[in-house]
Structure formats: C-alpha cells, structure tokens
Design brief:
760 residues, Alpha-Beta Plaits, Ribosomal Protein S5, domain 2, four-stranded antiparallel beta sheet, alpha+beta, binds (R)-mevalonate, six-stranded antiparallel beta sheet, 18% strand
Length: 760
Amino acid sequence: MTDVFVSAPGKAFLIGEYAILHGAPAIVTAVDVRAFAQAASRSGVETPIVRCTRAAVADALERDIPSLGPAPSVDTRAFAPGRRKLGLGSSAAVAACVAAYHLRRAKPDAPAETLRDEIFARAFDGHRAAQDGRGSGADVLASVYGGSLSVRLAGGRCAIESRPRADWLTIGFVDAGAPASTTSFVRAIEAARARDADAIEQGISQLAQASARFHAAFRPFAPGDVAAALYAELRAATLLHNDGLRQLQRAADVPIMTEAIETILAVATEFGLAAKPSGAGGGDLVVVFAHEPAALDRFAVALQREHGLALLRHLRPSAPGLRFEAREPATSRLAGFFKLDIAARRAAVAHAAGIEPTSFSSVDIGALGLESADNLIENVVGTLELPFAIATNFVVNGRDFLVPMCVEEASVVAAASNAAKMIRAGGGFVAHADPPWMIAQIQLARCRAGGLRAEEAAARITRERDALLELADRAHPRLRARGGGSRELEVRVLAEDMLVVHAIIDCRDAMGANLINTIAEELAPAIERITGWAAGLRILSNLADRRCSHVVARVPPSALCANLPSNEWTADAVVERVVAASRFAELDPYRAATHNKGIMNGVDAVILATGNDWRAIEAAAHAYAAQGGRYAPLAIWRKGADGWLEGRMSMPTAVGMVGGATKVHPAARLALDLLDCRSSAELGEVIVAAGLAANLAALRALATEGIQRGHMSLHARSIALGAGATSDELEALTEQLIASGEIKHERAIELLRALRATRR
Ligand code: MEV
C-alpha cells in the first residue's frame, strides 16, 4: 500500500463557548494550523489520544489494535510555536489525523468524502475516551469538516446545524499570553452552581443570548442590509458575551477575563472593533472581528506598540478541513547536508521542499544571462556571481523553512544553520510582523515670509487628511483592489520653515518603493495648494519602522553546548556568557556595530538571495538601531526564569515577493519558491529569524572558544576544495591542513598529493 499522508487543522470558537454545554448553538472555525500524520519511521510512545483513537478505529473495523499496524507519527509543532501551546485544539486534530490514517489504510479505495463521516465518528470516540467521556466534539467537527460551523449539542455530542459565512468580516486572533485550562474552568463553574445557581444561570443565559444575536449577524449581506448596522449587532453580541463571562468569573471566582484579555478588549473598543476571548478565557486567544482589514491592522499596530501584544497573522479562520496530502510537509532538518556534493544537495533540497530538481538550473552558472542583466541596469558589461546556499533547521511559527542565502563570507551559512538547530530544540522561532506599511515622505518648505506658520500649515494638512488619503488611493487603484492602500497621514514640524508629511501606505506583498514614490509625487501638488508651502523631496523613507518583524527564540542550555568540549564549558556558563556578550553590545556602540554586522550576515544573505534591496534593509536596520538616540543592538539575549537562553529581535523588513528583481532574477524566483512564504510579512519573519540565528552563532562562539577556531576549519575546508580535494578526501585534507598550522593553497596541494599517494 502506498504511503498515507494526512493533515487536519486546529479550531477556534467564534461564539457560544460555555453556552454550548447548556444547549445553545456555537460557531467554531477551523484555523489553518495543521497537524500532520504519516507512517512512523520508528515506534514511539503512544499518547492517550493516539491510543484511544486507534482503539475506536479497531473497534469499528471489528479488528484488534495490532492488526492496524504501527501508529502513525503525528507532528503538532505548529500548535505550539516555541513550545507554547496556543489552545487551538491540537488533540482533536491528532484524533482526526490518526483516525483518517488508519481508515485510509483499511479502505484504500474509498473516496475521501465518503470516508469523512466515518473519520469524524472514530475521531470523536477516541477523543472523548481520552478525555474521560468529556468534550462536546465541536473541535473534532471543525478539524474534520473545516470552514466555519454552527454546532449544537444533541444527545451528548455536537452536530453541525449550518455552515455560516460572513465574508465581509475580517477575523484575527491575538495571543493573550497564557495557556488556559478549559476543564478546570468548567468544573469550577459547575461547583459554583451548587452554591449560587441563580448567578451561574444568569451568566449562562446571557452567553446564550449573545450566541443567538451573534448568529443573526454572522451571515452574508442580504438585500437591504446596512453594513454598519449588521456590524453593530455583531459587536453588541460580543459585548454581551464578555459581560456574561465576567458574571461567571465573579460567581465562580475563576480568572476567566485576565488582565491581558481586558487590555485587548479595551483597545478593540477604542478602535470600534468587536472582540471576545476565543475559548474558555483565562489567557490563550482573543478573537477580533473587523469590518475591514485596515481596521484590524490599525488595532494591531496600537496593541503591539502600547501593550506588546501581538496579532497572530498566520492564524487564518475558515481553513480547509482534514485532507489527504500527496506528500509529507517540507522539512528543513537535513542531517549531514553539508557533507553532500552539490548534486546530492540539490536532490535533497528538491525532495525536502517538494520542488522539481530541474529548478536548480536557475542557480547554474550564467543563469541570469547577459541579456537579462542588460535589462536590469545600465552600462552592463557582465555579471557578478555569488554562492547560493541553503541554511537548514529553521522552524518559524511551527513551519519548516529551507532558507536560501547568498553571501561571499565563509561560515555564515553553517553558523546560521547550527544556531537554527539549537533554537529548533527549543521549539523554533516565534515571530510576528507589523502590517506591510511603508512611509511616503513629502518635504515642504515655507517659500515666502508672511505665509502660514509651520503649526498652521500642519493643522491645515491634518484637516484635509481624508481627502489626501483618498487621493493617494486614486494614484494606485490596483493596490486597493489587492487589499492595500492608504492608512494614515502624519505631519511633523522639523523647523520653523520645514515640514514633512508622512503618508502611510499598506503595500501588501510588494516592497513598495515605486508605488510609494508615485504616491508621494501625486500628493505633493495637493499639499502645496493646501498650505502655500513648496514641496521639496517626494520619496519613501527607508526607515520603515511601521513594517517591522519581531522574532523570539528560546534555547535549552543543553543544546547550546553542542560541539563544545564538555570539560571546558557548562551549559549554564555558556548562557551567562552569551547574556554578558549581549549586555556588552547594549552598553557600547562600538560593540553594537559588530554585533549588528553579525546579524546582517544572516539578514543580507536572505535579502540578496530573494532579490530584495539590501541597501534599503541596511539603511533601515542601522537607523532603527539608533532610534533610541544611541546606537543599540538589534537583538538582545537574557536568561529565562527556567535557565533557558532567550533572545529577541525586531527590525524593519521592507521586503517584497512581487515586482523588481524578485520577478526578473531566476535565482530570486527559486529562492522564493523554496521559502514558499504566504506573505511578505512571513518573509520578513524568516529574514529576522536568519539574523537572530547568525547573532546567536557569533555570540556563542565569541563567548566561548573564540571565532577563529570555527572560521579556521571552514577556511581550511575551502582551501582544501580549492586544491582539488574530492568529497571523500575533503574531511581528511581539512584536518591535516588545520593540524599543519599552515592553511595555504600550496600546503594543501602538497598534503593532497601525499594523501593520494598513501591511499593508492
Ligand atoms: C563576522 O562577520 C561577524 C562577527 O564579527 C559578529 C560578532 O562579532 O557578533 C563575528
């Protein structure tokens, strides 16, 4: 039988949690974070959920469990980026995957749709058995059937009543920072009912009313609908729901509405948005409903800036349900990759990423071609080639990435891969990104004495904000159609005779330089008319601080010590020394510059490989590093309460996946195909992860055995290759070169000759 690969999504409640247990309907949506099952390469410990689901399948097939064959391995990393579980129903997704895996193997010819009901039934039984007979099964329904489902309990199990759609809504999820325990809350509420039935009943009945009102508004527009009225109704339903939760909290004395949740709800209210906890409360997720994508972005920007709480852009609602896949998901864990020759590396990457091996012709020598080069810039006489390599081991938000890097400096790719492996041991990078907002600057100068004073001119521009933003949108109608467009207008007084206007534009997946410059030029004459001042420069700002990516990494101390002589370094000492190295950069701009150079080793290499503008990124990085008034490190490291090393980094990432060299350069196309990012925001996250990995590798080396040792062995390796060593001679020649203390071409030729003579 051929291999079975199956994936199933997580879930989030949109409304009706708690109320569903008392007969009211709830809406649950599948979230595009997927568990993935395939044949296990070796047998592992079966979790209760796997064991119970296998038992349910065996029971239904009237077979014994061993006859099903070994349990599949199920990957749920995406549900717990950085090892922090997000409360998205991973156990339901596991049950769905395991049931589907065995049923597909038992019934290889059954069409997927025919199997679906059977998969649900077995997954439901298994899931419930693993939870001691509790659980409504709403999460299993979402995982198996996907989309958004209105569900209700009937005879102890959930059934689908309808598949409501409200495509006019933009739905986002915010991480409220702490995992919640649904079962302990439900138990506490049941216990409180015995003490004060009325209070609990009141709370539950309010939640049921909220669900009914929400259902009435969560639908497509009907003729005669007024969008604002429908949205107001949905918002009223969420407010009612939140009040109901507060009542339960008071009556049962459980922390359902945490401080972080209340903060998120308050910011949503400030922005006129509807929001509520998704699930039991007590931390975890808050779901936010916006009437347009830009409103969600504005809210997210304020929440991040003022409270450090992040909108999780990669969590998308109404995801497809369980599906059989053609292959396993891409992996970036390619053990021994560096030892392979180039052809074998190409084959390994093609296999791991699911791309055609022939795609690598785009990085063959001369692939750009003189004609294309001549079309890219002026006065072309040739091309410059750089190595195109793949950094391995990267996991960002639970997703594997093979990271393409172009750089001339030895050790950058190896170091980044090595650090990514350490971070992988801690659950991978956890990242989030600002919306892709760029700044168009219009400089204004007072042209004559007697004209408006600077503050008056600024006030006039601010009064015309809406008209100016509309004008900006007219300059690029296609951008609006793609979901981008103007977002904000700011005026800054730089001197009594100089102003600057910032038009903030959402560029979606473009880097945006061209479209921003067009908009700046379009706005300038209108602003001149409003103020009587003269427009000067009209161009984007490369300090793209409204478009940052933010990455966090946690490293278990044991992983940090890999490849260091164990008699010389304890894990704790390495953690302390990396933290001290970080503090050095925080205290000294001379060190901060070198620290950031190491970060840019990783960042620029990906920027270059993906055909992005590395001068723009460099300019942004260093201006951002100096934004506090003193040049500072972009990444810092601390020791966590559990002794793990924790690093965080933010920087502007004005990068695109469409247009410019990303479109024309064949290597850039391959790089983007390999990364397979879902948005420019995700690309920015991967780029910052590469920077943080490069930084960790450098600090670890510098803080322990020094940078030269690692550099030396890579240098020796490239000298050995230059001397003509074949892959089976390479390791031995490299070692001999290092031992000789003379890492030079002539010495390598001599040693290689001797090596061949002895082997012969
Ligand atoms: C060399 O390219 C980069 C380093 O200098 C970075 C650092 O010192 O952190 C090693």
